[in-house]
Design a protein that fits this description.
The chain is 54% helix and 11% strand. It has helices at 2-22, 27-37, 40-46, 55-59, 69-82, 121-126, 130-135, 138-149, and strands at 53-54, 86-92, 98-104. The protein is globular, with a radius of gyration of 20 Å. InterPro entries: COMT-like, COMT_dimerisation, WH-like_DNA-bd_sf, WH_DNA-bd_sf.
Length: 151
């Protein structure tokens, strides 16, 4: 029994570390932030633990007038699926076609609000804050050094 619990704990730790590593990404980070800002993870979570929703089903729950919202959302979710932030699979349609559906990967536990309404997501946003990135921008430091040394 402790071996099973140890495996679950290890998987939990890996998911937590993965959530922290997302903060160091560039493009995928901004897509994750947009998805969180749109409450996409929360929409999927509210649909049930193992819910798999299409981009169109998610877009239907967003407050948007953009007719291409589902297409844009699908592209964003495909990127996140490539980074294992969400799960992705194909669902058969009655007409014989298929559609891609998305679910929450284990890392999403840390990117959605827990029972206390708390999430790791805001903490990860700090490292990409505009003020912090400007401070660490080479041009800022180059200008600061030149200004200080000219006097």
């Amino acid at each position: 029994m402790s071996e099973i619990r140890g495996g679950e704990e290890e998987a939990e730790n890996e998911a937590c570390l993965f959530a922290m590593s997302i903060a160091t990404w560039a493009v995928p980070f901004h897509v994750v932030k947009a998805i969180i800002d749109l409450n996409v993870f929360e929409i999927i979570r509210r649909s049930g633990g193992a819910a798999q929703l299409s981009a169109a089903e998610i877009a239907a729950q967003l407050d948007t007038a953009n007719p291409d919202a589902a297409t844009v959302l699908d592209r964003m979710l495909r990127l996140l699926a490539a980074f294992s932030v969400v799960t992705s699979s194909l669902r058969s349609l009655p007409d014989g076609g298929s559609e891609r559906v998305y679910g929450l990967a284990p890392v999403c536990k840390y990117l959605t609000k827990n029972e206390d309404g708390v999430s790791f997501a805001p903490t990860s946003f700090i490292s990409h804050d505009r003020v912090l990135t400007q401070v660490w921008c080479g041009a800022y430091w180059r200008g600061h050094v030149c200004k200080c040394s000219s006097g």
